[in-house]
# Entry
Amino acid sequence: MVIKRGINRLLFLTGMLAVSAFAQQSETNSTTYSIDSDNSILRVYVGRAGPLARMGHNHAVHTNGLIGEINLASDPVNSTATFAFPVSSFFVDDQSERDRAASEGREGFDTAPGRRAIEGTRENMMSESVLNGAAHENIAARITTESVTDGQWNFVIALDLVGSTVNLELPAQVEVNGSALSVNASFALNHEDLGLSVFTALGGSLRVAEQLDFELHIEANSN
# Structure
């Protein structure tokens, strides 16, 4: 369905958030970790709303296109990171992702949209009024660490999205095990948080839900 306007933008934001939480190049005693794209994923769950919500679908959007570096400082609070991924790397309603969402108890993922509905959703997502993939091919983020407490990292993110910069503060769980580093984050953002408008159809009777749910898993290895 074409009910995913803000979601795609959100998706980009999220991936950048958790990843760039760790790096600061100004710290001389630091370790650089490169993101393992094959084993990293950003998921965005988009809901439906409005009087005619039954005519739409909930959607699972994901990307494995995450690229970037994390610079982990000896003092974790001085860690920073940079992150980016191409808009074209988004997948809409992959069946395995829908099955996963259903197994987690998320509502509206036990049935799948038809092929034309999925293609229409992705086309709308890439259109000029949403992600404008023709003009803005990549999403990028610059992330600094605000605080670290018992494994929870709080990040400040400057997200470059569709020609604008969005500033966010988000938490994540970070684990470091020798040459391997992992980041996990689950959070919700409203369209307004991302500077996005809710996509509507049928005169507003069918629209994307205001809240977008995100899951981010990053694996990175030191050089």
